Amino acid sequence: MKNFKLIIALVVFASIVSCNNKRTPQVQYMPDMYESVPYNPNGADGINNDPVNLKPVGGTIARGGHPAYNIPDTNEGYELAKTTLTNPLEASEENLENGKKMYDIYCASCHGKKGDGNGVLSQREKFSGIPNYKDREITAGSIYHVIMHGKNLMGSHASQITYTERWQIVQYVEKLRTDLAK
């Protein structure tokens, strides 16, 4: 009899609970997590009445970003980069080591491990006319410009390589050129 009353009570409770609309929530635990306070992104309704969507200070660079590269992809731009750009990174073993690692990933398949233009793609005759670094009059600026914009058959690698990695590759290419000239 005692169990029968308990079962009846549970059935009555379950039927009362199940009669509600299933599409609307009945009980909300911490409703502020579901219903956020809307802020006007361009107004002064932000937290502590501060404007929410302020423009950054002029010249601001995003975290992990790099200065804008404004030299155009033209022959004149190439010559300008060749004469004016210098490597902002100090020459160090760490920079050369990472430059070698990035060079092996992005450049060696065409330019070769030694920079002699005899990479795997050249050996398999996929591309011809890949330059040997010792035969070219290149500077840190011209190497960087070619990484940014590409030249002839080589496309741009700017989207794949970070600002610092580009300059590390430049250091490594300069080392390869020096080694080839010996």
Low-confidence stretches: none
Percentage of residues assigned to helices: 40-55%
Strand content: under 5%
On the 0 to 100 scale, the average pLDDT is: 82
Oligomer: single chain
- How far apart the termini lie comes to 103 Å
What characterizes the major β-sheet?
none
Helix count, DSSP H or I runs of 4 or more residues: 7
Number of strands: 0
SSE order in H/E notation?
HHHHHHH
Overall 3D form: elongated
Q: Which structural category do the helix and sheet elements fall into?
A: mainly alpha
Walkthrough of the structure:
The protein has 182 residues and is mostly helical. The protein contains seven helices and no strands. The chain has helices spanning 2-18, 75-84, 93-106, 108-111, 120-123, 140-149, 163-181. Helix 3 packs across helix 7. The radius of gyration is 32 Å and the shape is elongated. The chain starts with a helix and ends with a helix. The mean pLDDT is 82.
Describe the structure using short key phrases.
182 residues; 7 helices
